[in-house]
Write a structure and sequence with these properties.
By secondary structure, the protein is of the alpha+beta class. It has a 4-stranded mixed β-sheet. It has 2 domains: about 120 residues, no CATH class; about 90 residues, 2-Layer Sandwich (Gyrase A, domain 2). It is built from 7 helices and 11 strands.
Length: about 300
């Protein structure tokens, strides 16, 4: 009910007073929220009639049952233990377009009209009548049209903003995915080129590199740490489209130890392998670690 009162918050009461000369008509606008006069505007219309032809009796009187059992003939209103009624044909000369219903009243004043407002608010106004009474439905539609249009506009704007953001995010994600695929493809291609280069290099070696590595490994003393083994090392930086420049008859070994005797022992062991000429190319002292680093060359 609270929400309906936010939509239908005013009530027009058309006051009709029957006299011997006809009918006097006036319209009063009331607020349904506080039962006080409100600003003019679109509002449902209720007719309140009084004067000549209006009969008022106790609600418990026998005639009350007769009146209420014949709505095709009578119009009535029950209030404060009284029933006021009139014949329906008495309204034939009064304009009744868009009138929701008619109340019969013994007299018309502010207090009586306040009762009309209260009965409309608590007894007549409901969602059922909003959907079944065309005049009330039309009023509600008019009152809701602007808020509904504004809400739809806000939804459209929000949808546009959100869809634009989602579209941009999708495009960014798609661009990142494409870049990632390109990077992955480039990595695969690079890996394949490296593998091909390694295989080509292995085919170009004048000796079986695996066999040479195994033979040298058996000659390494326990006190020697071998850090590098180069077979047919490259002598010049590789250039695109040109063959590798390498010393095909050279083996280079780098290592370190704590004692110089181990270097001598290693050199002797390598000579005993019969691979070729063994030469101790260099020995240096690493003062920070108190280690001897060495370089040994074997010319096959």
């Amino acid at each position: 009910m609270t929400f309906i009162l936010r939509i239908v918050d005013r009530l027009n009461i058309r006051c009709v007073r029957f006299t011997d000369d006809g009918a006097d008509t006036s319209t009063v606008l009331y607020s349904l929220k506080n039962s006080r006069p409100a600003d003019s505007g679109h509002a449902p219309l209720v007719m309140a009639v009084s004067g000549k032809g209006i009969i008022t009796k106790d609600a418990s009187a026998p005639i009350a049952e007769t009146v209420t059992s014949d709505p095709a003939t009578f119009i009535w209103t029950v209030s404060d233990g009284k029933i006021s009624f009139m014949r329906r044909n008495q309204l034939t000369k009064i304009e009744k377009d868009n009138v929701l219903y008619v109340e019969c009243l013994p007299m018309l004043d502010d207090n009586v009209l306040t009762g009309v407002v209260e009965r409309f608010r608590s007894g007549y106004l409901s969602w059922h009548r909003v959907f079944t009474v065309s005049a009330l439905a039309s009023l509600v539609t008019k009152r809701l049209m602007l808020p509904v249009l504004c809400t739809m506009l806000m939804v459209l704007v929000a949808n546009f903003v959100i869809s634009t953001h989602v579209k941009e995010s999708f495009q960014e994600a798609n661009a990142e995915l494409v870049a990632l695929r390109k990077t992955s493809a480039a990595d695969v291609a690079t890996s394949q080129r490296k593998q091909a280069a390694i295989e080509e290099f292995s085919r170009q070696l004048p000796h079986d590199a695996s066999r040479l590595s195994d033979m040298i490994a058996t000659a390494v003393p326990e006190k020697i740490v071998l850090s590098e083994l180069g077979i047919a090392p490259v002598t010049k930086a590789p250039e695109a489209g040109k063959p590798l420049m390498q010393n095909e008859r050279l083996i280079v070994l780098h290592g370190e130890t704590l004692v110089s005797e181990a270097i001598t022992e290693f050199t002797t062991m390598l000579t005993g392998l019969g691979l070729g000429t063994v030469r101790l190319a260099s020995v240096e002292q690493d003062r920070e670690r108190t280690m001897l680093t060495f370089k040994i060359e074997i010319m096959l």
